[in-house]
Amino acid sequence: MSPTERDTAVTLGALQRAEAILGAFDAEHRELTLAALSRRSGLPRSTTHRTAETMIRLGWLDKPEHHYRIGNRLFELSGLAPIRHELREAVLPYLHDLHHATRITVQLGVLDGPRVLVVEKITGHRPMPMLSQVGGTLPAYCSALGRAILAWSETETIDAVIAAGLPARTSRTVTDPVALRRELAAIPDRGWAVEREEGNIGVSCVGAPIFGPLGNVVAALSVTGPTKLVRADRAGPAVRMAAAAASRAYAFRR
Prior knowledge:
It is a single chain. Helices cover 48% and strands 18% of the residues. It is α+β, with helices and mostly antiparallel strands. The strands form 2 sheets. It has a 6-stranded antiparallel β-sheet with strand order 5-4-3-8-7-6.
């Protein structure tokens, strides 16, 4: 192995360890002790400690007292990602309008493999603690955000989501591939996707797609709240109109 190849291997190894440590954090594990960080990252305790200390100096991690957490530097960098900067900036006014009209949680998401990455969320005075936070993910197959995107996606994309598995999250979750495809096929005619207590009992969601300048689906927005407050016949048209306006704004910006 040449010196250049050896240096590359060392750098790659360090980055892979940093990735493992960052991957140990999620919405339910925002702060971790060294022991927990080592266990969840799969790295030896000494390696975890050494790598984490380097990440603290870089601002990637923070360590108040005896717990590690994500550092502010990563938060600063995340705002530079095109999906956060361009899409969020273009769509945010319409998210606020939709929240003002419905008074329930509004979310913006993009497809990330078989899951949906939550890019923005507005909760107001009715927080929904069981929902994913900004930066979190949720299954595409049983969420209105995911279905709104999949309904306008290529067959290969839908096939990949189904191949990843359709486990039941509640007794109402659609887990049959044929039934899911049938549901996706019905969405374009009405203009919005519906999810009723498939992710969380007592919570329902209505979502609609956001399109890019070439007419391809790039994201979706949704309203989510207690089932008794989320009626598709009322929320659907509002969500569809907000998504259409957001699509025009995003396409113009692009």
